[in-house]
Specification:
Elements (H helix, E strand, L loop, with lengths): L1 H30 L1 E19 L2 E14 L2 E6 L13 E7 L3 E3 L4 H23 L4
Antiparallel strand pairs: 1-2, 1-4, 2-3, 4-5
Helix pairs in contact: 1-2
Amino acid sequence: MMIIRVFGIALILIGGFLAYGVAGSFSRMLHGEKIIATIVDIEKVTDKYKKFDKPSYSYYPILKFIYKNRTMQLTDKSHNSTEKEVKTKIKIYYSEKYGISRGFTAFELVLSIISLAFISAGLVALFKFKLK
């Protein structure tokens, strides 16, 4: 019975940690202003490690948008892009405090479902065997 309680507490802690991460990325959308940005260029960054004895590269979009009557140009290092995406318009959320977010993605949706499942399973493990 003690093992089940420890397992339940571990599930609740893991679920809470995942929920905290999702809430942190969700706060960018809540506090940010929805803006249409244009990808004006791609920044090529050499990664610090070498893969198969050749350097690897990341390609980050440089976004241009208007925020509070100022033209801003920032690099979005949360997503990779290709040269084909230059001059396309995308919707972003931006705030000076939290930076750029592209919205709630499928990955964050899956993480939120997993965190709820972990928390629920942990509560069931704790309280189901407590009643007996």
